[in-house]
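Per reviewer request, we include the raw input and output of the structure prediction for the construct analysed in the revised manuscript.
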Amino acid sequence: MSDPEPCRMKHTEDPEEQRDLMEVKEESEELSEVKEEREELSEVKEESEELREVKEEREELSEVKEESEELSEVKEEREELSEVKEESEELSEGKEEREDLSEVKEEREELSEVKEESEELSEVKKESEELSEVKEESEELSEVKKESEELSKVKEESEELSEVKKESEEEEESEELSEVVEEHHVKPGEKPLSRSKTKKTFLKKRRDKKSFTCTQCGKSFTCKQSLDVHMRIHTGEKPFPCHQCGNSFSQLANLKIHMRIHTREKPFPCDQCGKTFNGASQLKRHLTVHTKEKPHSCSVCGKSFSRLYTLHAHEKIHTGVREYMCFECEKTFTTAESLKLHQRIHTGEKPYKCSHCDKRFNHSSYLKSHEMIHTGEKPHACDQCGKSFVFISQLKRHMRIHTGEKPFSCDQCGKTFICASNLKSHLRVHTKEKPHSCSVCGKSFSQLSNLHRHEKIHTAVREYMCFECEKTFTTTNCLKQHQRIHTGEKPYKCSHCDKRFSRSTHLKAHERIHTGEKPHMCDQCGKSFSFKSHLKRHNQEITQNCQKASGRRGRRERQ
């Protein structure tokens, strides 16, 4: 009987214990869930870290791809660097040898920059060639002026024709005068007529004959056909069009003279030099080159000219008169011909077609320069190295390489350049301007040529191939430099010794051994270096030392 009571007591304690046990179980389940969540979180973290690593690996892979493309070029640079190493070993002793060798090692880093600079230079050359073409356009404008002069010559020829007509008319007048004199020959017993009376009777007859008068200006003509031709001056009518370029003319004779431009017919040769011309007036103007005759002088500055219209065009410089205005953009010009050529920009008219391809041009001079691409004609040769050029302005710019002339200087650092385009691109170093962005990755560049070269990384275009080893390159300049390995060409000679180099950058690096020049200075400690790569490495060492010092300082503070 005593047993049920403890059992009852046990039943009274079990619910609380069961609740406790349930709570413990729930807590343990929650703890297990928390552990699982923590494990899942750790896995998520690991996955996120792995994803980051994958992204970094992808970025590194893209960089590796770029580097792998550059490595082939670096191999060539290493071969050339071995030459630089040999030169540095020959010219330097002791510590200088070590410094020069370290400089040579760092040149590997610089050569990638140099390679880009060389490609930039090639593009700059292209831009300078484009600028030279712009300059040549101004020269070609002078040729256009010559064409306008030819037109004026045509006018002169028409004036000459009118003069011939006048002469023939004068001959007729003289014949008619003689007829009048014979008609009024003094007969026996008659009083002779005076000279003035005889002329009056002749003029009266002449006026009677000239019965066709212009209603606009009052000029008289002997026949209706002459009046009709004259009226075209007032009406602007030009019924004779050229089927080649669309130009129209008021007289058939003028069209025939104009057609010689297209047919290249030049029937008038110079007996002094053999040069041929398509008009007599052109030949007459050309002869003043041999005679040196300049009969027309400017009353303001005294400058002399062989042609009167050239003097008139020159005088507008002093007077500032620019009476011809474009109604599209309000730009003014000194001559009607210059305005006409300018208006083709707005109308898009391109009357001059290449005989080799379908390309058209708005200036005959542009057509002439374009056709030299097909013919391969390069009439302007350098007397120093024999290199030929299409335009004389290109030759003049090239001659600065031989003379060392650099007329364009930077007002920021004093560095000088051969042409204005090189100076313009250099100024972006100071302004940090990078206006050209890649549409694929968004990277920006200061030069358009650099952007075009960079875009080839995305497209993988390497269109320039060496026929010796079939290696491909992205630019003509890289191919040209590579080909010197096969040819052994070393066009760059040291001015201090007899050593020669295949690249101008190698010559520049070599000459610093002679001059001791160290243009790259550290802004932290003032130490100077021969190469930019040396300065970069020096700055990296400073930052690493600073980081180490700050790390040691932090450890001391924690201790």
